[in-house]
Design brief:
The chain has eight helices and twelve strands. With about 230 residues, it is of the alpha/beta class. The strands form three sheets. The chain has a five-stranded parallel β-sheet with strand order 2-1-3-4-5, with helices on both faces. It has a four-stranded antiparallel β-sheet with strand order 6-7-8-9, covered by helices on one side. Strands 10-12-11 form a three-stranded antiparallel β-sheet. It is elongated, with a radius of gyration of 20 Å.
């Protein structure tokens, strides 16, 4: 998993980051609140671990700003404030879990894994929306505006991957792994052909194109200005 740790205590953060990295995770760390919020906003993380008491912007304010912006990254809050009212304030602010300091790393790790599993289940079942395009992973139904879009199976897999990564550049290799799950040559020609067909269905009539080509890199699903 890719994790974000926002913790100002260097000793505690070093212990936490090292343990998470040794567990096989990729970890970014911020030392104060404003930088932490910027990372949480601009990056994609499976779970954010946020200390409550931070310089420049406290953990409660970070979580509130994330939720107000529509950022649903699971948050585990750490705090030396362990009273029932303190925990309730954190949960009401938008935290998904609250762990009192001092903590055992094995418990923190287990809570992170549980949050990630819960988020994966929710994301896999949720209807995806980008602009006026929606896609239901369960029924494989796509709708642009009020018009149903009939997709072949591979096209639906590519569309789902693009929408789950909306706003980010995805390479042709990433797309072929998402839809075929094996090595295949020529990758570029295969993907470009399927993306061309997908575009003819998704972007044919609306004035705003959702599927953008990023020359030299791949493709990107971008929401139109409605």
């Amino acid at each position: 998993m890719r994790l974000l740790v926002i913790e100002d205590d260097d000793r505690g953060a070093s212990y936490l980051v090292r343990g998470l990295q040794e567990s096989g995770h990729v970890v970014d760390r911020a030392q104060e609140g404003e930088t932490g919020l910027m990372l949480a906003t601009e990056g994609f993380y499976d779970v954010a671990v946020i200390d409550r008491m931070l310089p420049r912007m406290d953990g409660i304010a970070i979580v509130q700003a994330m939720r107000k912006a529509g950022n649903d990254t699971p948050v585990l809050m750490l705090s030396a404030l362990s009273g029932a009212l303190d925990k309730a304030e954190g949960i009401l602010a938008g935290c998904d879990d609250y762990l009192a300091k001092p903590y055992a790393f094995v418990e923190l790790s287990a809570r992170i894994e549980a949050l990630a599993r819960r988020a994966d289940r929710a994301r896999s079942n949720a209807v995806l929306k980008v602009g006026d395009l929606s896609f239901d992973p369960a029924s494989r139904r796509a709708v642009r505006g009020a018009v149903d879009v009939v997709l072949q199976h591979k096209e639906s897999l590519l569309l789902e991957f693009l929408m789950r990564n909306a706003g980010r550049i995805v390479t042709r290799t990433m797309l072929i792994e998402a839809a075929w799950d094996y090595d295949f040559e020529p990758i570029d020609a295969l993907i470009d052909r399927h993306i061309h067909r997908l575009r003819r269905k998704i972007d044919r009539d609306p004035p705003e194109q959702l599927i953008q080509t990023v020359h030299g890199a791949g493709y990107r699903m971008a929401a139109p200005i409605l």
